Amino acid sequence: MYDEQDSLEALHRELDAALAGESDAIELIFVDDGSRDESLARLRALSAKDPRVRVLALDRNHGQSAALDAGFRAARGEIVVMLDGDGQNDPADIPRLLAELTNADVVNGVRVDRRDPFLRRASSRVANAVRNGLTRETITDVGCSLRAMRAEPLRRVRMWSGAHRFLPTLLRLEGARIVEIPVSHRPRRHGRSKYGIANRLFAGLVDVCAVRWWQARTLRYGVREERAGGSAPLD
Description:
By secondary structure, the chain is α/β, with parallel strands linked by helices. It has a single domain (8-233), classed as Spore Coat Polysaccharide Biosynthesis Protein SpsA, Chain A (Alpha-Beta Complex), CATH 3.90.550. The protein is 37% helix and 16% strand. The chain has helices spanning 8-18, 39-49, 64-74, 94-100, 118-135, 151-154, 167-173, 197-200, 205-217; strands spanning 28-32, 53-57, 79-82, 106-111, 147-150, 178-183, 224-227, 230-233. It has a four-stranded mixed beta sheet with strand order 3-5-4-6. Strand 7 (224-227) and strand 8 (230-233) form a beta hairpin. Helix 5 (118-135) packs parallel to helix 9 (205-217). The chain is globular and about 65 Å long. The N and C termini lie far apart (39 Å).
């Protein structure tokens, strides 16, 4: 969350409804990324009413990668679902993402009928194409923040500033199997977008080259331990 005070209560209600049929072992982690409005106070109020709500407050605005990293490190479950706090992701899609984890480690949402201004949609498509081209990826919509992931490969990912733009690729480098499914997308009802062409496209060009280097240098080998009478693979 970053200055999303007017979206919080509606998001909480929708999460509660969407997860009603799931296990009771659920936690709702809200990360406040140094908001200047009443977001943190309203989150504290939610946590007082709902014991599932955990509130993490960053010391100042650090950006999306840092906020996600804080949430990932705090998460205690075997499955982690992430989504933006602006209300554009629909929590009602979460059960479908969870169902697809049966045969995958990561389920990435693909926004259909995007409800963003033309310039934002165009810049997102260009940035996605550049990332895919340079990293030899096939992710349809890496900018979609609605994603379900198994915690095991996620906890091996080391986040850095800008890493959220490459999270599916970083998870794939950790051996994760990735599938994609269509998810709904809604217009922003409150607040304003924190992204534009400058921080969506140009800011990621250096990072793309770094990720490509990382892909080329990642160690990939098999090993077994030789013993008297036979050998066995190492865990």
